[in-house]
């Protein structure tokens, strides 16, 4: 009986989780002169950005976009095919989404351990 009361209270006070895994783009930070705030603006028009695979790595996205060859095939993982510097270069990820009304006043983020650093620039909330 006690478990039912807890589940009922929890379900009435918390909105359902939202997964944001579509519509992502990425670009090498050295090729983007704008600030994070500008990139987060709803009217920002990315030029030359790649479609990003999320969840995934920068390399996964760049392979899918034809920038680099599949690293697990033949000798494609050599530095003359995929530069080692790629693992040290910062990249911007960007997407746009609508925040459900049930999330009013509850905006947050959760680290999943995929990246060293994550920042959220909520634009036009």
Describe the structure.
The chain has 125 residues and is of the alpha+beta class. The chain has a domain of 82 residues: Jelly Rolls (Sandwich). It is built from three helices and three strands; from the N terminus they run αβαβαβ. The protein has a three-stranded antiparallel sheet with strand order 2-1-3, covered by helices on one side. The termini are far apart. About 10% of the residues have low confidence.
Present the secondary structure layout.
Elements: H1 2-13, E1 25-28, H2 36-40, E2 50-51, H3 58-64, E3 91-94
Antiparallel strand pairs: 1-2, 1-3
Rg is: 19 Å
Q: Could you give a short account of the major beta sheet?
A: 3 strands, antiparallel
The counted number of beta strands is 3
How much of the residues is beta strand, in percent?
Answer: 5-15%
Q: Alpha-carbon distance between the termini?
A: 40 Å
The CATH topology of the domain at 19-100 corresponds to Jelly Rolls
Distinct helical segment count: 3
**CATH class category of the domain at 19-100:** Mainly Beta
Mean pLDDT: 80
List keywords for this structure.
single chain; 125 residues; alpha+beta; Jelly Rolls
